[in-house]
Design a protein that fits this description.
Distance between the termini: 44 Å
Low-confidence stretches: none
Strand content: 25-35%
Number of strands: 21
Structural class: alpha+beta
Radius of gyration: 27 Å
Shape: globular
Helix content: 25-40%
């Protein structure tokens, strides 16, 4: 038993309970939040924390479980953002199953009413999860994991059959280990833990391989400071900063199962940094003490590589403390809409050197309101020379053929690609203005060269380099007081302590607005990233080079 690890979780869990007891839980709070609070409280109540068998904790547990029982619909589901939602109910039920298992093992007479109430919630929820639908790919595995847990407490063939039905669809993972949602949030918090739970409770060891491959991929998406690269995500984290801490128990379990020193190194780094809500791991470790076994000897993580992920059209490059991502896998070229579940982040390159972080490089031509450049492909010409490219063609429409005309002037409301109009666009002859863009990213000594080639129509464009807040810019001109700068000539420098990113050459004084496109402007939307934004400008057709060096 790794007593230091268990002590770390216990200390973190104790701090969580102290905060919970100081707060007043509002009656209208969200059920999943309440369920997670119940799980935190129970982990302290039955564990080795200073709150073991604490009457105040038990009183709070009874209050919260009573709320959960009252909020549950007659059909067994909860309203959690969505109405009568089976998948959202499954998230809550997983926590309550862990709670019930811990309380049942403790066999404390004082918790008998609490256990009875939670048992009743599980009884009502099981049939709902065995018959209800879902919204997203990861929901299938969350519901199945909840059913696997309920089935262990209240065996029912319907639950097993439903799990088998969902699993028969196949796990949505590519050969490179990336799930279809390409999201660190959902891999870490839903898919991986759910598959491991089903494997454990339903004796389905073949599911572990999907988790193993995902963790293997994550090794190459890790930044030196513990962040996970999320540029390719199809979910909300494509615009967020994510830490690997949510993967802790998965890396621990596979490190122990496989004797994998790399996975052990990631787990130990999370523990050393104390990142994330470590207290949330305590209940699961108390439920499965084998997860707290001593880890195998840590081995070196990959720190010198070029790694391609075909499923998301990205390439990761790492040389010690310098990392970079080249990304060409947004969904916009094929699906010209903005929606949850699509990859729409226009960042196509990012680089960091130690604490100096260039979070994004973007390109936006002013071309008929079509917005940012989104690559249609990613091609590797050599191990670390990558090309991205796209062609945007915008039509001008000719008069309708005589046979398509109507006397009343009423035509179908149809899309142009940028907007809709009652013009029967699909029935008109048209001619086009086109803009072709190719961007080559080449690794060179101490950095990268980005070559931009734009051909076809005349169009001014802006490049945007967005640096992480916390550093100092020099060599650039201030545009305004809102974090916007322009590199007019020479070389710019972004420095954090001794870590520097140099970039240039400057491209003149012309100002070009970074146009997000009609799809965003129509809704008063924005694609302005947070940070220190430096702009370079140019005009198509033409060729321009951006040199990025680290020092």
């Amino acid at each position: 038993m790794d007593k230091d690890f268990l002590g770390l979780l216990t200390t973190a869990g104790t701090a969580q309970i102290a905060r919970l007891l100081r707060s007043q839980q509002p009656v209208g709070a969200e059920p999943r939040r309440v369920g997670r609070e119940v799980r935190r409280l129970v982990a302290g109540y039955v564990g080795e924390s200073s709150y073991g068998d604490d009457p105040a904790v038990l009183e709070r547990l009874q209050l919260l479980s009573g709320q959960l029982a009252a909020w549950q619909h007659a059909d067994g589901t909860y309203d959690i953002g969505n109405l009568h939602s089976p998948p959202d109910t499954a998230f809550l039920i997983q926590d309550l199953c862990v709670v019930w298992e811990l309380l049942d093992r403790a066999e404390d007479a004082a918790t008998a009413p609490l256990r009875s109430e939670i048992h009743g919630i599980l009884q009502k929820a099981g049939p709902a999860l065995a018959s209800g639908g879902v919204h997203t790919p990861n929901h299938r595995w969350e519901v199945s994991a909840a059913l696997a847990r309920i089935n262990h407490i209240l065996p029912d063939q319907r639950y097993v059959d439903r799990i088998d039905e969902w699993l028969a669809e196949g796990i949505d993972a590519g050969p490179d280990g990336i799930y279809s949602e390409r999201s660190a949030i959902y891999a870490a918090a839903v898919t991986n833990p759910s598959l491991l739970t089903i494997a454990w409770r339903q004796d389905r060891p073949e599911l572990i391989e999907f988790v193993r491959r995902n963790l293997e991929a994550t090794l190459y998406l890790l930044e030196p400071n513990g962040e996970v690269d999320v540029i390719a995500s199809r979910r909300q984290d494509q615009f967020q900063i994510r830490d690997v801490s949510e993967y802790l128990l998965q890396f621990r379990e596979l490190a122990l199962l496989d004797g994998d020193g790399r996975f052990a190194a990631v787990a130990q780094d999370i523990e050393r940094r104390g990142a994330g809500e470590l207290g949330d791991c305590l209940a699961e470790v108390l439920e499965r003490p084998e997860l707290a076994a001593a880890l195998p000897q840590a081995t070196e993580l990959p720190t010198d590589f070029v790694k391609e992920f075909p499923s998301q059209a990205s390439v990761r490059i790492r040389r010690g403390t310098r990392t970079a991502t080249v990304f060409g896998g947004t969904d916009l070229p094929d699906l010209p809409v903005i929606a949850s579940g699509l990859s729409v982040n226009p960042t196509f390159f990012k680089v960091r050197h130690g604490d100096a972080i260039l979070d994004s490089v973007r390109l936006a031509p002013q071309f008929f309101g079509t917005g940012h450049f989104h690559s249609e492909y990613l091609r590797r010409w050599s191990p670390s020379v990558v090309e991205l490219g796209a062609e945007v063609a915008v039509p001008y429409y000719q008069p309708l053929p005589p046979e398509r005309r109507t006397a009343d002037g009423r035509y179908a409301l149809t899309p142009d690609g940028r907007f809709y109009a009652s013009m029967a666009f699909d029935q008109r002859p048209r001619d086009y203005r086109a803009l072709r863009t190719a961007i080559t990213v080449a690794e060179v000594e101490n950095g990268f060269d980005l070559t931009f080639e734009l051909a076809g129509s005349e169009a001014p464009y802006a490049m945007e380099l967005c640096f992480r807040p916390g550093g100092v810019l020099s060599g650039v001109e201030t545009i305004d007081g809102f974090g916007n700068y322009q590199l007019e000539s020479g070389t710019g420098v972004y420095a954090v302590g001794n870590d520097r990113i140099e970039f240039g050459p400057g491209s003149g004084t012309a100002r070009v607005v970074m146009d997000p496109g009609e799809r965003y402007r129509m809704l008063n939307g924005t694609l302005v990233p947070d940070g220190l934004r430096v702009y370079l400008t140019g005009c198509a057709p033409g060729r321009q080079r951006l040199e990025i060096r680290t020092a």
